[in-house]
Amino acid sequence: MFHSEDIFYMQKVIELAKLTPIQTRPNPKVASIIVKNNEIIGIGCHLKKGEHHSEIHALQQANEKSQNATLYVNLEPCSHFGSTPPCADAVIKSGIKRVVIANLDPNPMVSGTGVKKLQDAGIEVIYGVLDKEASSINQVFFHNITTQKPYVTLKVGMSLDAKIATKDNLSQWITSRDSRADSHQYRVSHEGILVGVGTIINDDPTLTAHLVNNSPRHPIRIILDTRLETPIISKVVNDGLAPTWIITTNTDLNDHKPYQDKNCKIISLPSIDTDKVLKELYQHGIYSLLIEGGERVYSDFLDSKNVNQIISYISPQMIGSKDAKHFYAGLGFNNLASNLKLEFIECKQLSSDIKIISQVIN
């Protein structure tokens, strides 16, 4: 049974864990607080893969005061040897008498064994406190562990009638500068950004987070290019602002060389199937992927249901024409029982546009 103070301290744990937005990947965001006699005696946060987990930082700070204290942590303490020793062992050794957890770890190497180890040592364990709030900050990690694929965010700027370009393929700019600047925040928070080769040919974008002031990083730029038609003079090939990867079915090494000479990575696959692409990217360290078009790429990922989140910026204008580029012009779904279902997470106005965040319901 948990108490009102458990909710209070778990809220603080979650707030602390949020302060490590991407740096812990592929590890989860985890924070810990140790409390004794209603006084915080230790605080810890996991900062980077290979470094101490949050429990260890908190225990080192609390030191001998940990005896008979309560540990609050948003994810089940690990019970196995990985890059670091098991945190559950350190918790047991410290003399902690009670552990309050938000989420159990979906990692098969942990998944309840951390809790069992603590309980077997006589420690009271409570879990499920603010579990929904805690799981939302680690949705990328949970998806990675259960699917071995990146968490996919589809970002789209469109007109009120869901067009992403006119019939003459003009798209700059449908949405406001405020919307575009906001969307660049997602370029910072994802390891990779993916577009189809048509976007490169038509728009020659940089695909960097250049609208974010003092951006700490840019995503890896990934192009789906079946026949290897990316213009050799395009910005993503030449500007050196971020790595560029090209996924193609072209296996001719002579065709690869001009791009490799400009430090582009070529990934050859038998087909540009979305499942295969995602699994390949995960093996290359892409844990979260931002998709920014165009029409066919959007459709392929939506048809295959390989989407976790959709960020929509909707401009109050009509473009019309069946020949214009649509946000979703794929095969679609035959019935309303098996279609792609989402829930609205956020809706707000940005300048003249409306921003909607939707998450796919599994």
Strand-residue proportion: 15-25%
Separation of the first and last Cα atoms: 29 Å
Low-confidence stretches: none
| General shape | elongated
- Number of H/I helices: 12
Radius of gyration: 23 Å
Order of helices and strands: HEEHEHEHEHHEEHEHEHEHEHEHEEEE
Please give the order of strands in the largest beta sheet. 11-10-9-8-12-6-13-16-15
Fraction in helix: 25-40%
Q: Major beta sheet, specifics?
A: 9 strands, mixed
Structural class: alpha/beta
How many E strands?
16
Average pLDDT taken over every residue: 93
List keywords for this structure.
362 residues; alpha/beta; nine-stranded mixed β-sheet; five-stranded mixed β-sheet; elongated
Entry summary:
By secondary structure, this protein is of the alpha/beta class. The chain has helices spanning 4-17, 54-62, 87-94, 113-120, 131-137, 139-147, 177-189, 197-203, 235-238, 253-260, 274-283, 295-303; strands at residues 31-36, 39-45, 70-75, 98-103, 124-127, 151-159, 163-165, 192-196, 220-224, 244-248, 265-268, 288-291, 309-315, 325-326, 342-350, 353-360. A hairpin with a 2-residue loop joins strand 1 and strand 2.
Topology of this structure?
Elements: H1 4-17, E1 31-36, E2 39-45, H2 54-62, E3 70-75, H3 87-94, E4 98-103, H4 113-120, E5 124-127, H5 131-137, H6 139-147, E6 151-159, E7 163-165, H7 177-189, E8 192-196, H8 197-203, E9 220-224, H9 235-238, E10 244-248, H10 253-260, E11 265-268, H11 274-283, E12 288-291, H12 295-303, E13 309-315, E14 325-326, E15 342-350, E16 353-360
Parallel strand pairs: 3-4, 4-5, 6-12, 6-13, 8-9, 8-12, 9-10, 10-11
Antiparallel strand pairs: 1-2, 1-3, 7-14, 13-16, 15-16
Helix pairs in contact: 3-4
